[in-house]
Amino acid sequence: MILEALTTVLAALVSSYLIWLVAKRKQKDGEPPIVPFWIPWLGSGLQYQKDPITFLRKQEKKYGPIFTVFMGGSYFTFVTDPFTHPIIAKESKVLNFRICTIPTIKKVFDFTRRGVDVPTMGGLMVKYMQGHWLETLVSKMMGNLQKVLLHGSYNNTEWATTGLLHLVETVMCTAGFKSLFGEYPASSGVDNNKLHHKIVEDFVKFDKAFPLLVQGRPISSLKGVKESRANMWKFFTMDEIHKREMVYEMVEQYAKKLEEDQELEQLKKELYCVNWAAMSNTLLSAFWALYYILKHPEAMEAANVEIQRMLKETSQCVDGKSEINFTRDDMAKMTVLDSIINETLRLDISSSLLRQALQDYNLKVVSADRSYKIRKGDKLMTLFQLTHYDPEIYEQPDQFKFDRFLNSDGSPKTDFYKKGKVVKFFLQPFGSGVSKCPGRYWAVTELKQLVILLLLYFDFKLINPEQEIKMDQIRVAFGSLPPNIDPQVQFKRRVIV
Ligand SMILES: *[C@@H]1O[C@H](CO)[C@@H](O)[C@H](O)[C@H]1NC(C)=O
Ligand SMILES: *[C@@H]1O[C@H](CO)[C@@H](O)[C@H](O)[C@H]1NC(C)=O
Ligand SMILES: *[C@@H]1O[C@H](CO)[C@@H](O)[C@H](O)[C@H]1NC(C)=O
């Protein structure tokens, strides 16, 4: 009886596996080769996730600069040739970006944008994340960072110990939230400090779960995450925004637009998504920038020299009374910091370009000197990490070199080569084409601000400089990679004499 049942189950399993094998995609004439796989649904997912660069390089060696990989139930056609990336980025009509993001936004943030809203919302972002508007946001952030660093528990002239990531999360989340979403006035009776504490805690909990949500884990299976998201939503309703002061104009306009469209229910979810997008990758990159500076005394030295030079140029000094104020223009002149940040982004961001073909398409692959047929509905994928870690483009790509992006005269270095040819897309931490992150100018400025203020006001050291820290590949293709452990640092407020 039992044996019979088992046999039936086994037979069913074997036959469905066979059906699945038969139904697998076959390479047609003119199409990219398919990397073989035997595990249903997962496909090559595990190998890719474990070490994406090694996995993709291996396939590249075997199959050339374009090949199709099955993982997580979908086929992805990878293009590893950096000379072809600009072509994909430019082809925004046939190779669509938005339809790729809709399911992810629904899974993670629980809303679906209606088609008409998207350009308006995107337009708001672009408008308020550059030019003179951005200038006001940058100035607010500079003030808020100094308030958090100098007026709170960090104002301590004795050595204190903390995790570096924890410190960065707390400082950046608090200052960033205040700069974008304002603060409750004293008359409201709300304790802003307590509130910010809660916001950091809920943010971190959700952010840790983010890659799992993207992979399709149901939110209710992750302990406390749904509650964290619901807690956060409460701060992004129209009512709460009206109660706060100094809300950034972009947020006001965003709210107004959704109100006009009678989508108020969605407002809290959209704004929460904005808050997450503004913080998540920035936090992790800020962590790595500081970590590399602490690990590399020559980088620390060069950054300090440049910061002192800029203080002098702008006739400011650290007197503990007035706040330091560097404008975006000032910071744009700080090319050493720029190079440190670019080098950090090169190493820590796993950015990608994901596109879905809206019709059959012939993709010209430059280094193969031929075209490949892409089927309607196919997903094209480019992992910029491959370029960022390409030893032909960057010598010793695993090493942090603070001056990698500087010419000998101190100007930004922008010529990088592969096989003797200039690589146009040598550094794409923010993606490319229509999917390029609209907040990129702000992000880079925030990173500089944090580095400047921490180096000016604090002494820092890693407790265990020899400890090896790795990047966890869990967010591959989705942005900054988190460290596998949070290294402990000692810090103290510098005494002003
Ligand atoms: C920071 O701490 C110093 C020394 O304890 C104190 O004199 C100063 O007033 C504090 N600054 C702020 C802004 O709280
Ligand atoms: C910083 O300087 C700029 C330009 O001088 C000015 O517009 C801005 O208001 C200043 N910010 C602060 C916080 O003082
Ligand atoms: C860093 O990257 C940005 C954006 O790609 C670029 O504008 C800037 O010139 C770069 N700076 C240096 C020093 O390479």
Automatic annotation (TrEMBL):
Binding-site list for substrate: 107, 281, 379
GO molecular function: heme binding; iron ion binding; oxidoreductase activity, acting on paired donors, with incorporation or reduction of molecular oxygen; steroid hydroxylase activity
Residues the entry annotates as binding heme: 437
Gene Ontology biological-process annotations: bile acid biosynthetic process; cholesterol homeostasis
InterPro entries to which the protein is assigned, alphabetical: CYP450_sterol_14alpha_dmase, Cyt_P450, Cyt_P450_CYP7A1-type, Cyt_P450_E_grp-IV, Cyt_P450_sf
Subcellular locations according to the entry: Endoplasmic reticulum membrane
Broad class of where this protein is predominantly found: endoplasmic reticulum
Pathway the protein acts in: Lipid metabolism; bile acid biosynthesis
Keywords: Endoplasmic reticulum, Heme, Iron, Lipid metabolism, Membrane, Metal-binding, Oxidoreductase, Steroid metabolism, Transmembrane, Transmembrane helix
Record Pfam families: p450 (PF00067)
Cofactor or coenzyme needed: heme
Keyword Flavoprotein assigned: no
Transmembrane feature ranges: 6-23
PANTHER family the UniProt entry points to: CYTOCHROME P450, CYTOCHROME P450 FAMILY 7
Family indicated by similarity: Belongs to the cytochrome P450 family.
Protein name, entry field: 25-hydroxycholesterol 7-alpha-hydroxylase-like
Species whose genome carries this gene: Ciona intestinalis (Transparent sea squirt)
Species lineage: Eukaryota, Metazoa, Chordata, Tunicata, Ascidiacea
Gene (name only): LOC100184784
